[in-house]
Structures are given as structure tokens and as C-alpha cells.
């Protein structure tokens, strides 16, 4: 019997590590789009304390519009992402998003009129919309089935790192805020005149890094095969998993493409017909649920939530960094569990945990228990969210749709996500005035518990299945 030599075994192990490093490397580059998404999305939470004074924003409508206008761009980017990703390829859209992130962040930071501020926030939102669609889509298409959950979760990990970087940047850039200043003295402070500008501008450097790095990643092998570039697709797949894996995966993709060809070109209206209608509805509901858990209020309006709990401005900025740290730690844990525990059970755990945390927080506000109890309960909700809905929703959205309409379906689900996010973010100032923090958290807690029932009834387990196997299972429902 032949026994492999130590040299042969070591060589095979080295090749395996090299392939694993390669797929992780290109996934990390794609996930930089998520990092920029996270930073650009959350930086406003710390900056708004100062730009609202600079632009003299006092009405709930203007405050809500300033905080949510980027979501209009997110919706535009999401709607365009499916078509553009199919027409021009995933890699070129990532490059385009990087350019938009860099330009919009710099010009938002140095806007001297409220109209210019709104315009460049919307352009930055377009970049977020493109990246939030194409980064997880690209990662899903280059990932082997047995590691796809971790690799797609890498995008959410990058989003969370971006969130934490924004929170740290806001905290470190802002100079200590003296109490008891007059309106004129407040307006003249460095934070109001310049601090918030540097908070936005800080994203330019990582955007340039993303742009340069994206030049060196390969195009999605599945997109290459749709363009009949078989040699290039085979080379990418072989580099990812070896020659045998490349041949098998290429055969699977080509078989799926042949089925798509037999069914005709994909059209947007196909999403409205059975069995696609059912799958798209599940994806849309998951996207809306992720937003209407209310967690993004704790990022975009953290200052209001913690001020109502009795904290001052300087402590609020530190508390926001603490929430970002908790968010990061539990996102890492989610990456370790997503391919072990599975998607469905984590989603059930998350909705229940967030719902209970919100309801207890509502009780704390109603009972006058402020300060530490509110901080602990909001951290509990963020921990549950980071462990479950935050990453797993993106994993499921990238997995559950049939190959033939994946770009359109992902675009539809993510567009629904941004519409839901706009509704959440824009309405918070009004709801806060009318219902108070206790009433708002009661509503969000109820939505989470309804979400638990929805997941239990309609969301399947996708752990360990290839994209083609998932499609086959779901189209039978």
C-alpha cells in the first residue's frame, strides 16, 4: 500500500492553504465595500450633534430628512445594481462604488450649504446601495458552499468594522463639549465649524484603498460564464478550489445557465410569478424585518436615545463607541456559528432576543429607570442583532434566489431594505416627540416578535447547500 510522503502531504497542505488564502483575500477586498457602507451609514450619528447647529436645523422634518436623505441614494443604487452588475460585471460596479464613496464623502464634509450637504449625502447613498448589493453577491458567487456562510458574513463583519471606525472617529475628532454654552458660543465651537467635516472626510482614505485593491480581484466566474468566457472562469475557479473543484463547479454553473437559457431571458416581471413570487416575498420580508427591528435607530439616533436616558454629550459619544464594540464582538461570533448552527435557528434566536430586550427597555423608560439599565438593554439588543439578523439576513438574501434572477431579486430585496430603513429613520423624530422612547421601543419589540413567527413559518435552512441545491429546494415550495 502506498503511503503519502511527508513532503507530498506538506505540499498538499500548502496548496490548500494558498487556495484558502486566495478566496479569503478576494472576499476581503469585496467586503471593503461593506466597511465603507458601515462607516458612511453611521458617521452621521455623531456628526449630527454639530452639523444640525451649523445648518440651524430645528424642525423634526429637516432633522429627519438630513438623517435619512442618504437612503434615497441607497434605493437608487440598489435599483441600478442588478442591471449594472449583469451588464458590466460585479468587479466594475465595486470600482464605481469606491469612486462614489471617495468623492461624496469629501464633498459632504466640506459642504457649506444644506442643499449641497443633502446632494452629496444622496450620492454617498448611491455608493452604499451599489456596494450593499454587489459585495455580498460577488462573495457568494466566488465562495465554495462549505464556507459561503462565513465568507458572506465577512461582508457584514466589514460593515460592523466600518461602523466602529466611524464611532471611534467621531469620538476622537470631537473636542470635549463644555456645558452651559450660549447659542452663539456653541455655533463658534470647533466641532460645529470643522469637527463634523473631518468625520465625513475620514472615509476618503479607505475608499481609495478599496478602489486600488478592486483592480486586482478577478471577475465573478458565474458572470464570466454568462459572457461565454470559459477559460477565464475556469482559471478563477481552479485558483479558488483546485482543478477538480473548478471542473465540477463549472459544470454545475453551466448546467444552471443552460436551464436558464431554456427558460428564456430573465425579466423583472418574472419575480411576480410562481414559484419566484414566494421566494422574493420571503427575501423582501427578511430585508424589511432587519430594519424594522429598530436597531439602526440606536446607531443613527443614539444621541437622542442616550440623552433621554440621562447621559451628556461627551458620555454619549463614548457610549456609542461601546455599542460599536459590542456590535463587532458579536459579529465575529456570528461568523463562527453561521455554518455550524445554521441560518434559521440564529434568525429565530435573534428576533426573540431583540424583541425581549426592546420590551424591557420600554418598561425601563416607562418606569423611570434611566442611565445604566437603558444602556445595558440597548447593548443586549445590539448583541442579539449582530449575532443574528445583521449578518444572516445578507447571507440568506445572497443565497435563496434562483441563479437566473438572482441579480434582480437581490436588487428587489435590498431596495425594500432601504425603503424600510428610510421609513424607520425619517419617522423617528416624529415618533419620539409623540410617543417617547418607551413607546417607540414597545413598537419595535412587537415587530420583532411578529418576525419570529414569520421566520418559523417561512424561512428554510440553507446551511451547507450549493446555490443550485437551494434553488431546487425552494422552487418546490
Q: Any overview of this molecule?
A:
The protein is mainly α and 477 residues long. It has a single domain (21-217, 265-474), classed as Up-down Bundle (Growth Hormone, Chain: A), CATH 1.20.1250.20. Helix content is 81%, strand content 0%. The chain contains 21 helices and no strands. The protein has helices at residues 6-54, 60-68, 70-88, 90-109, 114-142, 148-173, 183-188, 190-201, 204-214, 221-226, 230-241, 243-263, 276-292, 295-300, 302-308, 313-337, 343-367, 372-387, 389-399, 406-458, 467-474. The longest helix has 53 residues, at 406-458. It is globular and about 70 Å long. The N and C termini lie far apart (49 Å). Residues 8-14 have low confidence and may be disordered.
Amino acid at each position: 500500500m502506498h503511503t503519502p510522503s511527508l513532503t507530498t502531504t506538506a505540499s498538499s497542505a500548502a496548496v490548500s492553504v494558498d487556495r484558502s488564502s486566495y478566496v479569503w483575500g478576494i472576499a476581503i477586498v469585496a467586503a471593503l465595500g461593506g466597511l465603507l457602507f458601515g462607516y458612511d451609514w453611521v458617521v452621521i450619528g455623531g456628526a449630527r450633534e454639530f452639523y444640525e447647529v451649523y445648518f440651524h436645523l430645528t424642525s423634526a422634518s429637516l432633522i429627519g430628512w438630513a438623517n435619512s436623505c442618504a437612503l434615497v441614494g441607497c434605493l437608487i443604487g440598489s435599483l441600478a445594481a442588478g442591471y449594472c452588475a449583469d451588464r458590466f460585471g460585479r468587479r466594475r460596479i465595486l470600482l464605481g462604488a469606491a469612486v462614489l464613496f471617495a468623492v461624496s464623502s469629501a464633498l459632504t464634509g466640506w459642504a457649506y450649504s444644506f442643499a449641497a450637504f443633502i446632494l452629496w449625502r444622496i450620492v454617498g447613498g448611491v455608493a452604499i446601495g451599489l456596494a450593499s448589493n454587489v459585495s455580498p453577491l460577488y462573495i457568494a458567487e466566488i465562495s465554495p458552499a462549505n464556507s459561503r456562510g462565513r465568507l458572506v458574513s465577512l461582508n457584514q463583519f466589514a460593515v460592523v468594522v466600518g461602523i466602529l471606525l466611524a464611532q471611534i472617529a467621531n469620538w476622537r475628532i470631537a473636542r470635549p463639549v463644555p456645558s452651559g454654552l450660549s447659542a452663539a458660543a456653541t455655533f463658534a465651537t470647533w466641532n460645529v465649524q470643522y469637527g463634523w467635516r473631518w468625520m465625513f472626510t475620514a472615509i476618503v482614505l479607505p475608499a481609495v484603498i478599496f478602489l486600488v485593491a478592486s483592480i486586482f480581484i478577478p471577475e465573478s466566474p458565474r458572470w464570466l460564464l454568462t459572457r461565454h468566457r470559459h477559460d477565464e472562469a475556469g482559471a478563477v475557479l481552479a485558483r479558488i478550489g483546485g482543478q477538480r473543484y473548478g471542473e465540477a463547479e463549472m459544470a454545475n454553473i453551466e448546467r444552471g445557465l443552460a436551464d436558464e437559457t431554456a427558460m428564456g431571458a430573465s425579466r423583472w416581471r418574472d419575480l411576480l410569478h410562481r414559484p419566484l413570487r414566494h421566494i422574493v416575498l420571503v427575501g423582501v420580508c427578511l430585508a424589511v424585518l432587519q430594519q424594522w427591528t429598530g436597531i439602526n435607530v440606536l446607531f443613527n439616533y443614539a444621541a437622542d436615545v442616550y440623552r433621554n436616558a440621562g447621559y451628556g454629550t461627551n458620555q454619549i459619544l463614548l457610549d456609542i463607541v461601546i455599542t460599536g464594540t459590542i456590535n463587532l464582538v458579536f459579529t465575529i461570533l456570528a461568523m463562527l456559528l453561521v455554518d455550524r448552527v445554521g441560518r434559521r435557528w440564529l434568525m429565530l434566536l435573534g428576533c426573540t432576543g431583540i424583541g425581549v430586550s426592546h420590551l424591557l427597555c420600554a418598561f425601563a423608560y416607562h418606569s423611570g429607570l434611566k442611565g445604566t439599565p437603558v444602556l445595558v438593554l440597548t447593548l443586549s439588543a445590539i448583541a442579539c442583532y449582530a449575532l443574528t439578523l445583521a449578518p444572516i439576513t445578507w447571507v440568506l438574501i445572497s443565497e435563496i434566489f434562483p441563479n437566473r434572477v438572482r441579480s434582480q431579486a437581490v436588487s428587489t430585496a435590498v431596495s425594500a431594505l432601504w425603503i424600510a430603513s428610510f421609513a424607520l429613520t425619517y419617522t423617528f423624530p416624529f415618533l419620539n416627540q409623540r410617543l417617547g422612547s418607551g413607546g417607540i421601543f414597545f413598537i419595535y419589540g412587537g415587530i420583532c416578535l411578529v418576525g419570529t413567527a414569520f421566520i418559523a413559518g417561512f424561512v428554510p435552512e440553507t446551511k451547507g447547500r450549493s446555490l443550485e441545491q437551494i434553488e431546487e429546494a425552494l422552487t418546490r415550495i
